[in-house]
Design brief:
The protein has 216 residues and is mainly alpha-helical. It is built from five helices and four strands, in the order αααββαβαβ.
């Protein structure tokens, strides 16, 4: 049979408390030592910075004193350092300008290539347009002419037809006997018409041209 563990005695409890206190004290001591070390390091760094600043100030003062004590020729001999620095700055600026110029040249080349391609396309379109047949003019209107002041057109054909012919078509050539004397019922009464008189059997060219008297 299992027996319960014996309960800790008072002496054991005291020992445990003492051990915990000792551990806490050790941790506190270690933390204090660590803080002291950090503080010491910070102080040393500050001292080093102050010493460096003092040394730099002393060196600057010495250089100024040397330049003041030297004759003008020696002071002029000390100028090449500043000149070298300015030349280095100028060279860097020139390099930057060259880089920008190179980019601009590349962009210009691309633009010229696009322009040449566009011009080639336009030339091809123009050549294609020249190869195409010319566009025919629009046909004359086929609506009936009702104004009596427009006798330049007249209709010949079946009643109600809409064929429009010009006078110039009758001023040359022969006029057939069938069309020489159109009947009144073959002409649209709402439009003016012309009667073609062809003497001598219809030869319109033999008598100095056909006469075209207007009839209403």
């Amino acid at each position: 049979q299992l027996q319960p563990p014996p309960s800790p005695t008072q002496s054991q409890l005291q020992q445990q408390q003492q051990r915990q206190q000792q551990q806490q004290q050790q941790q506190q001591q270690q933390q204090q030592q660590h803080n002291q070390q950090q503080l010491h390091q910070q102080q040393q760094q500050q001292l080093q910075q102050e010493q460096q600043e003092q040394q730099e100030q002393q060196e600057q003062q010495q250089q100024q004193q040397v330049l003041q004590d030297q004759p003008p020729q020696s002071a002029a001999a000390a100028q090449p350092l500043a000149q070298q620095r300015s030349e280095a700055k100028e060279s860097r600026a020139d390099e930057a300008v060259d880089e920008v110029t190179r980019h601009l040249m590349e962009a210009r080349d691309k633009i010229e290539a696009v322009e040449s391609e566009f011009a080639q396309i336009m030339n091809e379109l123009a050549a294609y347009g020249r190869k195409q047949p010319a566009r025919l003019p629009d046909a004359l209107p086929t609506e009936p002419l009702t104004s009596p002041r427009s006798p330049e057109y007249f209709a010949i054909g079946t009643p109600g037809g809409n064929r429009m012919d010009s006078l110039t078509s009758l001023s040359s050539g022969r006029t057939s006997p069938a069309n020489a004397n159109p009947l009144p019922n073959q002409v649209n009464e709402a439009r003016p018409f012309l009667l073609v008189a062809a003497p001598g059997g219809g030869d319109a060219g033999g008598g100095g041209g056909a006469r075209l008297p207007k009839t209403h």
